[in-house]
């Protein structure tokens, strides 16, 4: 019988990475001196996360999916995604600006033979004073105007900059230009894809002393040049009730702020559920299985688990993720 699964992270060395994955989330990324990303749940080829608990310990996510199929992800999800786990979960520590980038949608990715597009969302775990990120444009654009700004090295003038603080959430659909600024620690939930088009890298050098590759010709067709009045997700805290942060065809993300024992019934969901613990600690019971979830840990609840019981410490915050 499948049970709640924990995985060993895959750590990514990035030139903009820091040390908060270790100091704030207790993730040991040795032997790296700094680290930009921890892939907490991944079926991306060559970057699969490996189970660390129970009788499936030592197996990677893709191996388990091939064996258990719809028991792991749900019949509806398996019919659509097959032996590809559809969601990738990361923690990201930005100690410097990340490149300004964009991701293609499914249609463009398919036409280029690169798998899925990439829609994602960010939940800010911590932010230093005055920390900023980029999401979208600050006014309506079109391809010709955009290319003119790019040619003149004036891209920064048309980008929408947002001040951020702990608890902020941002939905980043495919096509939206975006970048993280220094001093931000966040959880990222995204489609399973590792396709990124880098369009500006702050004129810095890579680890080899040369400018990192840009993908501006590929990026133009991927960019959504529209403008919206609010790029930040507006929500109201509601203790002991799920609060929706993101809803799209690829994933639903809810915030659970629990202060008392809570039963969850997932029998009608027909999807796996991912718990991302961003603060606090809880004991989770699923049938005969019992597991502890603490800050910086991610738990995968297979679709065959219909009910669980959470015994939280006060003030726990969990991101609940599933396929709608």
Keywords:
single chain; 324 residues; mainly beta; Jelly Rolls; 2 domains; 7-stranded antiparallel β-sheet; 6-stranded antiparallel β-sheet; 7 helices; 13% helix; 35% strand
What would your notes on this structure say?
The protein is mostly beta strands and 324 residues long. It has two domains: 5-220, Jelly Rolls (Sandwich), CATH 2.60.120.10; 243-322, Jelly Rolls. The protein contains seven helices and 22 strands. The strands form five sheets. It has a seven-stranded antiparallel beta sheet with strand order 4-1-20-17-22-15-14, with no helix packed on it. A six-stranded antiparallel beta sheet has the order 2-3-5-12-7-10, with no helix packed on it. Strand 18 and strand 19 form a beta hairpin. The protein is globular and about 65 Å long.
Secondary structure: elements and pairs:
Blueprint: E1 5-8, E2 10-12, H1 20-23, E3 37-41, E4 50-51, H2 61-68, H3 70-73, H4 75-81, E5 87-94, E6 100-102, H5 106-111, E7 120-127, E8 132-137, H6 143-151, E9 159-163, E10 169-172, E11 178-180, E12 184-191, E13 197-200, H7 216-220, E14 243-247, E15 252-258, E16 262-265, E17 273-279, E18 281-286, E19 289-294, E20 298-301, E21 307-312, E22 316-322
Antiparallel strand pairs: 1-4, 1-20, 2-3, 3-5, 5-12, 6-13, 7-10, 7-12, 8-9, 8-11, 14-15, 15-22, 16-21, 17-20, 17-22, 18-19, 18-21
Sequence stretches where pLDDT stays below 50 over 5 or more residues: none
In the CATH hierarchy, the third-tier topology of the largest domain is known as Jelly Rolls
Structural class: mainly beta
CATH architecture of the largest domain: Sandwich
Helix percent reads 10-25%
The number of helical runs is 7
Order of helices and strands: EEHEEHHHEEHEEHEEEEEHEEEEEEEEE
């Amino acid at each position: 019988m499948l049970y709640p699964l924990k995985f060993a992270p895959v750590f990514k060395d990035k030139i903009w990475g820091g040390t908060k994955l270790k100091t704030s989330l207790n993730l040991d990324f040795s032997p790296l001196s700094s680290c930009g990303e921890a892939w907490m749940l991944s079926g991306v080829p060559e970057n699969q996360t490996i189970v660390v608990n129970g009788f499936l310990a030592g197996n990677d996510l893709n191996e388990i999916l091939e064996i258990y199929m719809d028991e792991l992800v749900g019949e509806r999800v398996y019919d659509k995604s097959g032996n590809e786990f559809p969601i990738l979960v990361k923690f990201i520590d930005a100690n410097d600006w990340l490149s300004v980038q964009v991701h293609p949608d499914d249609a463009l990715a398919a036409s280029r033979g690169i798998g899925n597009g990439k829609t994602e969302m960010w939940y800010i775990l911590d932010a230093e004073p005055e920390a900023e990120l980029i999401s979208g444009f600050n006014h309506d654009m079109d391809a010709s105007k955009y290319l003119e700004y790019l040619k003149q090295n004036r891209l920064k003038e048309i980008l929408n900059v947002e001040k951020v603080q702990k608890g902020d959430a941002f939905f980043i659909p495919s096509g939206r230009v975006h970048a993280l600024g220094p001093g931000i620690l966040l959880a990222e939930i995204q489609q399973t894809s590792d396709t990124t088009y880098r369009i500006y890298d702050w004129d810095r050098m890579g680890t080899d002393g040369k400018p990192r590759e840009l993908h501006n010709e590929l990026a133009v067709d991927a960019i959504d040049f529209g403008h919206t009045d609010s790029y930040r997700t507006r929500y109201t805290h509601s203790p002991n009730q799920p609060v929706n942060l993101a809803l799209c065809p690829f994933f639903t993300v809810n915030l659970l702020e629990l202060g008392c024992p809570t039963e969850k019934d997932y029998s009608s969901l027909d999807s796996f559920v991912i718990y991302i613990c961003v603060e606090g600690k809880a004991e989770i019971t699923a049938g005969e299985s019992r597991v502890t979830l603490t800050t910086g840990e991610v738990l995968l609840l297979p679709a065959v688990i219909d009910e669980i019981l959470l015994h939280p410490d006060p003030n726990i915050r969990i991101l609940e993720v599933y396929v709608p």
